[in-house]
Amino acid sequence: MSTAQPAKGTRDFAAEEVRKRQFIFSTIIGVYEEFGFEPLETPAMENIETLTGKYGEEGDQLLFRILRSGNFLTKVAEDELTTEALNKLRAKIVDKGLRYDLTIPFARFVAKNHQTIGLPYKRYQIQPVWRADRPAKGRYREFYQCDADVAGAKSALSDSEFVLMIDQVFSRLNMPRVTTHLNNRKVLFGIAENHGLEGRFIDMTVAFDKLDKIGVDGVAKELANRGFSETEVHALMPYLNLNGSNEELIAEMRSKFTNTETGNVGLTELEEVLEYVSAINIVHSDVKVNFALARGLNYYTGTIYEVTLNGVEMGSVASGGRYDDLTSMFGLNDVPGVGLSFGAERIYDVMEQLNLFPKNQTGGLKVYFTNMDAKNALVSFKAMNQMRNAGIKCDMFPTPSKLGKQFKLADKKQAQYVVVIGDDEAAKNLLALKDLATGTQHLLSVEEAISHIKNGQ
After folding, report:
1. Which of 220, 222, 263, 309 is most buried by a 10 A CB count?
2. How far is CA 203 from CA 210, 268, 273, 329, in A?
């Protein structure tokens, strides 16, 4: 492999791609700020104990761990350099990791700063995260998350706001219509409790969470592989095949929940969210109760949601949920939380595939100055500075060169105008301003050129 290639599962982004991504980010930020969220940034790396044990068995395996500085093998015995001693070895040679998501760093920040930030605290955060996953379509090892979270609010109103933000973001991005799948972790626990399986709740949800990838039969095999008996698997399968309206689904599930108070609490919480959502005109999203939705991360405790694009083969493009005990991991109890994350990479890929980006997503370079010779380069340099001071984006070829080469670069940079200042133009204190789109050319003073450009003449 060429050393010029980026690491597997990562990508370079050239100017046009960066501007398209910035369009996505600015759209999401606009919605977040309208809903009262404020920005936050946290470090790319966290102490390893901050990250481990927060994402479940599979999540921990996907952490990018950072080796200790210096000679980290000094305190490691030779018999510890074995696969069997891997976990013990990690503790000695690893002390930090790249952040897996933005939620755990947010919880850490709230626990550390809750007395100064004020609760409830609403923040948004758009930064890269890293996962040692197998790269595939729509799945990368380095990718951006666009998170919004509320700490200190235990209310269906807060959960419902995220459903509304999902609708707003995808509507403003002009994306295909989406489906927001809703469930509640208490309902999932109720399923386990209903059949005496609460001790294996995590195993059950990990299997359920793979439904969209491996199907119902695959989930049955996964449960069997995790030690569930044939009778237990048979009892769980009907929960993955329920159909009907949201009201019908909740009513059917409630009729099954004869042995679980927790499950019924979860159903009530779902009803409260749906009541808020139904009071608002949702224009771009189908909101659908989905009892198979599990969200594999262990820290979720209540409402969970996942967003898919209707008619587009892509995984979830946004997801999140309620986590009412997350800050207690960092010594701060009784601070409920709920959050949402948009998958910028998948959104970008779909918008690129469907040609949904605005046509004017360019850098906005208006004028490109040519460089005829050293003497006139100074005249061009002064004129360019005048235009920049007038708020016009300009650039200039750095050395004298053939005009054809310079015009070709100006076109590549998507400049609207090219300026030529040769001996004749300099003698008259004028410049030749050529419109690259129309081919028309005008001989103008710098002041006239500025007015011409600003007025779009």
Report:
1. 263
2. 11, 25, 27, 22
